[in-house]
Design brief:
Elements (H helix, E strand, L loop, with lengths): L1 E6 L6 E7 L2 E9 L8 H17 L4 E9 L7 H14 L7 E6 L6 H13 L1 H9 L3 E4 L4 H12 L8 H8 L8 H33 L3 H28 L3 H136 L48 H26 L1
Amino acid sequence: MLIIMLTSETKEIQAYTFTHNNRTIHLIDTPGFDDTNRSDSEVLRDLAFYLTSSYDNGFRLTGIIYLHPITATRMTGSAFKNLRTFRKLCGRESMSSVIMATTMWDSESAAVGDKREVELKETAEWWGDMMREGSRVVRHSNDHHSAMNIISHLVDRNTTTVLGLQKEMVDEKRSLENTEAGREVESELVKERQRFERQLELTRKDMVEAIANNDKKHIEEIAKEQQKFEAKIQAIEKGREELHTTMEKLIAERERVHKEELAKYDQQLHESREARETLAGEIAEMKQLAKKQAAQMQRHQEQHEINVELLSVLALEAFKKQEEQAAKTQQKMAAEMRARESALKRKLEKEKELHERQMRMAADQAMIDRRREEQLRAEQQMFPSSPPPAYSPLSPGPAPGYPPYAGQPPYPPPFSPPPAPFMPMNPVVDYTGVVAAGAALGGVGLAGAALSACVVM
C-alpha cells in the first residue's frame, strides 16, 4: 500500500517501507509547498514526476497525510496558497482519502491548541470545505502509537484513490502547466511577478530622483534593491518555464539526471576502485616493510639479550671485585681498630700504674705531714715562747700557723692534690678524650709528687 505524506520539513522525496498488520506499507515522505529553500514549481515538478510515474507503473495510492503544526499562530497568505495548491493536486474525488494531522501539541498549551483546531475546522477556506468533502482531522502526539493509528485509519478502509494530477497528466496527457495544480502555481507566480515589477518600477522612480539629487548613497541602495527584484523576477520566470512539461518530459529528464548521476557514481566507483587498488598496493608494501622491521627487531632483540647477558656477567664480576675489595678494606680497618684498642689499653694500664703510684705518694705525704705536725706540737710543748710577730713574705720567720722549729726554714704547707679517680678502658667511649684526660691527671700527679719530694728534703 502506498501512502503519501506531505510535510514542510522534508527537502527531498524519501520512501520508507515497513509491515503493519501483515501488510507492506510504502510511506512516501514529500516536501510541502511552503518550502523556504525551493520554489513551488520545483516542488510540484518533483511531486508530479513521482505521482505520475508510480501511477503509470500500476501503483495506486491508499491515502494522503497532510501535516500541519498547531503552533502556527495564523493562516497566512502563503499558507492559503499552499492549501489551495494541495487541494488542486488531490482533486475533489480524493478528499475522502486525505487526513489533516495536526502536530507539535507538546509545544503549545491545550487551550490555545484546541482553539486553533476549532478555527481550522470551522473556517471553510481552511479545512472546513475539505472536511465536508470527506477529509478527516486527527491529532498526532509525536509517538509511534499515534502514527500507527493514523496509518491504520487509511489502511483499514481497504480502498485506493487516484489523484487529480495523476488523471490529468497520465490519463488525459496534459502538460503540467495545464493541470489544476499547475495553473494554481502559475497563477501565483504571475501575481508575484506583477508585485515585484511594481516594486521595481517604484525603485526606478526613486533612482531618477536620487540621480537628480546626486545622492550617491541612496543610488547604491536603490541599485541593490533593483538587482534583488530583478533576480526574483528571473526566478519566477524560470519557475513558469519549469511548469511547461509533460509526464514524458519529466520521465526523460529524470532519466537523464539519473544517467548523469549513475555516470557520476560509476566514475566515483572507478576512482574508488583505483584508490582501493592503490591502497592495497600500499598496504602490501607496508606489510612487507613491517615484516622486514619485525625481522630487524628480532635481531635487535636477540643482540640485546646477548648484550644484557654479557653485561650481567661483567656486572657480576665487578660486584665480586667490589665485595672482595670491601672485605679487604673491612679487615684492614678491623686490624687498625684492634691495634688502636691495644695501644689505648696499654696506655690506660700505664696511666693506671701512674695513678696508683700517685696515690701511694699522696699517702706517704699525708703520713709525713702527720708526723711533722706531731713534731711541731712536741717542740711547742718543749719550747714555749711569746706569740710570733705578724708574718711578711719579706721578713724571716715562720709562716702563720707554723711555729719555728730548729734547723728548718719556714715554708707554707705542702700542696697535696686530691687523688684522681681511676677510669677503666671502655671500648665504646672516645679513646682520644680518655687519653687526654689521663695525661692531664698524670701531669698533675707528677707535679704534686715533685713538690712533696721537695718538702721532704
